[in-house]
Amino acid sequence: QRLLAVFGTLAVIFLAGAMLISLFVFVSDIWPRGRDTQDGLLSDDQVANLQQEGKRKQIVSYGMPDLIDTINLVYVVPVAAQTLERPEEAIMGLLDTYPSRSFSKKERYYSSSRFTNLLIYDSKNETVEQLFAQRVLTGMYYPTYFQDDILLLFQFADKDTNNDGTINLDDYTTLGIYSFKNKELLRVTYEDCTVWAYNFIEGSKDLLVMFGIDKDKNGQYHGGKEPSFVMRYHYQTRKLTEIVPKEMQDNLQRLVEGSEIK
């Protein structure tokens, strides 16, 4: 009986170990790799190096069209860049990268949560407008509805400012505003700063925009560790103005420093 008990215990341990190994292999197989570029676009330098070798490591992937203008049936089609496990020949067409050709599990493509472009699809007229003609990485887009227009807001980066090899939202970002009425893309930016937050002024198309200051000049804003400031973006004039007067800014700084205010 003791021998049977020993064998029984060993069998249980063996089965438990086999189950843990199987679970590890399963999770390893489905867990996205290359997460450093998962949510970003390869930097210009990396792309240039790949082009010299005649290779590519990211491919275009189209998201499901999102109906924004329900009256005119105008959609936003998000475009993403899916990162490959390893570079492939750049002469291949997009459709060649899908399951019609055989590839191993190691060559699986992973979806991106950021976008490399936004397309405006007018389903009534069957026309498509491309918002960007240069390499960018955008965040999620948010439509705001007015009586005379629909404004689509989103943040985007177009340079690898922190030199980490990827263009993503850790780099300096710009606020994009697309007008469905005017079919125009506006850009709200401030030198050496990143758009950190924004909100419409109630009952207006003007916005309050908070910019993060890259005080240590490392190409990236660290919220909570570096300062920020707020400006008003005047939609009609396309201008940014400070909401806190310069003299008040100086006095607020003096109060923080313990100096006498003027």
Task: Explain what this protein looks like in three dimensions.
The structure is a single chain. The protein is α+β, with helices and mostly antiparallel strands and 262 residues long. It contains four helices and 16 strands. Strands 2, 3, 4, 5 and 6 form a five-stranded antiparallel sheet that branches. A hairpin with a 4-residue loop joins strand 3 and strand 4. The longest helix is centred in the N-terminal third of the chain and has 29 residues. The N and C termini lie far apart (93 Å).
Topology:
Layout: H1 2-30, H2 35-38, E1 41-42, H3 44-52, E2 55-62, E3 66-69, E4 74-89, E5 117-122, E6 127-130, E7 137-138, E8 142-145, E9 150-157, E10 166-167, E11 174-179, E12 184-188, E13 193-200, E14 207-213, E15 228-234, E16 239-242, H4 246-257
Antiparallel strand pairs: 1-10, 2-4, 3-4, 4-5, 5-6, 7-9, 8-9, 9-11, 11-12, 13-14, 14-15, 15-16
Short recap of the structure:
The protein is α+β, with helices and mostly antiparallel strands.
